[in-house]
């Protein structure tokens, strides 16, 4: 059934045939950190370099035209993949840069407004204003906002997370002084899929800008950003089978046209004199300098690859694997699973603690068995403190993982406590 | 399983029953270190007088390697001359950076020689060094010198 998907796609991922530590076949359960890449993506990037490499939007020669066309086609394709228009899609280095771009653009708007440029009033942050985050945010969607709050005098508030890893949403939190609301679509620690439609409804009722961290959703769930009604959404390419070094930022028309730029330099200008410069008004305003052209083209191949399979099918496959792992872990003695035990609000990852054994030791034991997972605070340190955990171990699944791999993982986890003599 | 070379019996024993754990109220130097990649924490306190470490205590949360390392460090330095700590530190740092290519000097390192296997795992070297670096700062921060 759904497990056929992995066997069908695995030949496309050469790295999955690797033999790792101890002569074991690799069991890769760390896709939430970064996914593996199919030949189609590797080839698309290499083909660009072999055949059409040139800088885009500047060179009048044939290669320049071909590269520009391929880049813009990629934009079209990736925008379609997330239900957005190409004009609203901006390429970045990664999701962190995308979120920083938005945060710094709001800071710039604030400074320009304070210098008398009244057109930035609706983006300016002032003392008394609130940036509303959630307790489950990744550092990338928390640290930039803390910084911007400090610089502007705005306050940071948090939507609390319950003990079982669900947002405690209440309309009372969405007060009129909330200017920015930044939330994750799916927690990279808890696996919880947040009710973005509900949050968007509350945000829009008070006219706040809703910024979405879509890193764990776009690669794994069918996502339509226009339907979600968000002001901005950022995600990274390397978590969705694409190359490293490319991320995406969706900006609604409002933010795209209204926010001032973040990075300045080549390409993003309209006119430059010795005295001053004016900026482009389209998405080019946010793409300064030579872009990551090869990576964008590789990412487009990844979007095509995922579209051909269908995100519904990818999600169902992950749900099957996660349910199997979750059911077993919840029954295993000495294991504490972080996040909801209810599969219907969960994506394809599970973070857990092994009683008496530190996550580093858990991952080391699994590594000796060829099983790659992540140990640490997963760049969500405050969330771990909130849940009373120093760190956790995380197994994450993707379309290429098999039921047999989940069984291997479970068997190894069940041995850990006796190896470390705590059971 | 070659994992046993990393998790030697000595290390697991120290992890299970750590020595010198629990901070003493009187001290001349203290340092708190965090491994930012995992959140592991250690605090080391030293009471140094007349060129001697009268007392070394520690506390923290962490993996078996970092906790056992703190326990072994206590055994090696508590009630010893300050100079001995620095000699040990040089020896231990060198061992940790040896990538498994150096035979540990057991005469000098004692139980700390059991950490030789850690040097083959670059991600774990930081865990073993965490209490040592904290103690180095605690020693430098002490008011005796």
UniProtKB/TrEMBL annotation, chain A:
Cofactors per UniProt?
pyridoxal 5'-phosphate
- Protein name per the record: cysteine desulfurase
One GO biological process term: cysteine metabolic process
So what does this thing catalyse?
Answer: (sulfur carrier)-H + L-cysteine = (sulfur carrier)-SH + L-alanine
Molecular function GO terms recorded:
cysteine desulfurase activity; pyridoxal phosphate binding
EC number(s) on file: 2.8.1.7
Q: Provide the Aminotransferase class V domain boundaries.
A: 27-409
Under the heading CDD domains, the entry gives: SufS_like (cd06453)
Which classification does the entry list for the species?
A: unclassified sequences, metagenomes, ecological metagenomes
Keywords on this record? Pyridoxal phosphate, Transferase
TrEMBL record, chain B:
Alphabetical GO biological process terms:
iron-sulfur cluster assembly
Q: Which CDD domains match?
A: IscU_like
Q: Which GO terms describe its molecular function?
A: iron ion binding; iron-sulfur cluster binding
| Pfam families found in the cross-reference section | NifU_N
Q: Which residues form the NIF system FeS cluster assembly NifU N-terminal domain?
A: 7-127
Q: What is this protein called?
A: Unannotated protein
Organism whose genome encodes this protein? freshwater metagenome
């Amino acid at each position: 059934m759904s497990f056929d998907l992995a066997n069908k796609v695995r030949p496309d991922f050469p790295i999955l045939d690797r033999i790792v530590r101890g002569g074991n076949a690799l069991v890769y359960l760390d896709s939430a950190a970064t996914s593996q890449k199919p030949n189609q993506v590797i080839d698309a990037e290499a083909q660009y370099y072999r055949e059409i490499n040139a800088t885009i939007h500047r060179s009048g020669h044939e290669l320049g035209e071909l590269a520009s066309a391929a880049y813009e086609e990629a934009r079209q394709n990736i925008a379609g993949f997330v239900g957005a228009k190409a004009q609203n899609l901006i390429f970045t280095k990664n999701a962190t840069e995308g979120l920083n771009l938005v945060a710094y653009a709001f800071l710039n708007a604030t400074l320009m407004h304070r210098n008398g440029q009244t057109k930035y009033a609706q983006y300016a942050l002032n003392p008394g204003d609130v940036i509303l985050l959630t307790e489950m945010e990744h550092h990338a969607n928390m640290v930039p906002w803390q910084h911007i709050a400090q610089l502007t005098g705005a306050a940071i508030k948090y939507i609390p997370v319950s003990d079982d890893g669900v947002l405690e949403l209440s309309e009372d939190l969405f007060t009129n002084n909330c200017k920015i609301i930044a939330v994750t679509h799916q927690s990279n620690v808890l696996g919880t899929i947040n009710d973005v439609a509900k949050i968007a409804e509350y945000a829009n009722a008070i006219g706040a800008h809703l910024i979405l961290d879509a890193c764990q959703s776009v690669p794994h769930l069918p996502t339509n950003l226009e339907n979600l009604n968000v002001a901005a959404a950022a995600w990274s390419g390397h978590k969705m089978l694409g190359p490293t070094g490319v991320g995406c930022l969706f900006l609604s028309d409002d933010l795209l046209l209204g926010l001032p730029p973040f990075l300045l330099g080549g390409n993003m200008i309209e006119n430059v004199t010795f005295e001053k410069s004016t900026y482009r008004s389209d998405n080019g305003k946010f793409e300064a300098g030579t872009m990551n052209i090869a990576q964008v083209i590789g990412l487009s191949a990844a979007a095509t690859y995922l579209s051909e399979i269908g995100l519904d099918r990818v999600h169902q496959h992950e749900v099957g694997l996660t349910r199997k792992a979750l059911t077993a872990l919840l029954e295993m003695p000495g294991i504490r699973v972080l996040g909801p035990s209810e599969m219907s609000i969960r994506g394809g990852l599970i973070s857990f603690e092994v009683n008496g054994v530190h996550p580093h030791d858990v991952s080391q034991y699994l590594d000796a068995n060829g099983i790659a997972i992540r140990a640490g605070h997963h760049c969500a340190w405050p969330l771990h403190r909130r849940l009373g955990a120093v760190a956790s171990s995380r197994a994450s699944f993707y379309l290429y993982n098999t039921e047999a791999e989940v069984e291997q993982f479970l068997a190894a986890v069940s041995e850990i406590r006796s190896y470390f003599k705590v059971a | 399983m070659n994992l046993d070379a990393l998790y030697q019996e000595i290390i697991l024993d120290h992890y299970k029953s750590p020595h010198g754990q629990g901070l003493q109220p009187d001290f001349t130097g203290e340092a708190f270190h965090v491994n930012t990649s995992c959140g592991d924490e250690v605090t080391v306190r030293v009471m140094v007088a007349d060129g001697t470490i009268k007392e070394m205590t520690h506390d923290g949360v962490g993996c078996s390697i970092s906790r056992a390392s703190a326990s072994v460090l206590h055994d090696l330095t508590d009630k010893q001359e300050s100079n001995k700590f620095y000699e040990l530190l040089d020896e231990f740092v060198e061992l940790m950076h040896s990538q498994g290519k150096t035979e540990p000097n057991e005469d000098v390192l004692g139980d700390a020689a059991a950490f030789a296997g850690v040097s083959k795992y670059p991600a774990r070297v930081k865990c073993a060094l965490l209490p040592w670096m904290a103690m180095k700062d605690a020693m430098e921060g002490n008011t005796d010198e």
